[in-house]
Design goal:
Blueprint lengths: L1 H35 L5 H80 L12 H6 L1
Helix pairs in contact: 1-2
């Protein structure tokens, strides 16, 4: 994120440098106008000045755009921090659930061993099956 800010600062420096150059050129142009006023085309000079004014407005617009982008970058950084905090909370929740599952699995394993132990200790009981016709024969 700091490299984005560095780029923005560099762009702002370039914009300010160009602006200073334009001011210098404007002052230099004013001096030249005074020297050659009688020989120069006044309309052309006015046109050049208007071009410089338009360029300054463009630079001001670029500076405003850079300022807006800086605000967006700050907002994006905050969103990323919030997402990181939320992700950490989810990972902690999942870790707790995993521990709970491991605990339940070990308890189920103990119960399974207990059931196996009970099955081994129990004696199978054979129950004789009743004969349907046996009662009728014994009565006669």
């Amino acid at each position: 994120m700091s490299s984005g800010r560095t780029v923005i600062i560099l762009l702002l420096g370039i914009v300010l440098g160009v602006n200073a150059l334009l001011v210098y050129k404007t002052l230099e142009t004013d001096k030249e106008i005074k020297k050659i006023r009688s020989f120069a085309d006044v309309d052309k000079i006015r046109e050049n000045r208007m071009m410089f004014v338009d360029f300054e407005k463009t630079i001001a617009g670029m500076a405003e755009s850079i300022k807006n982008n800086t605000g967006r970058i700050d907002g994006a950084e905050k969103n990323i921090e919030d997402l990181a905090k939320g992700s950490k909370a989810y990972f902690e929740l999942f870790a707790a659930e995993k521990q709970q599952i491991i605990k339940i699995s070990s308890e189920l394993e103990k119960l399974k061993k207990e059931i196996e132990s009970i099955k081994e200790k129990s004696v199978p009981v054979s129950v004789p099956s009743p004969v349907i016709g046996a009662e009728a024969d014994s009565e006669t």
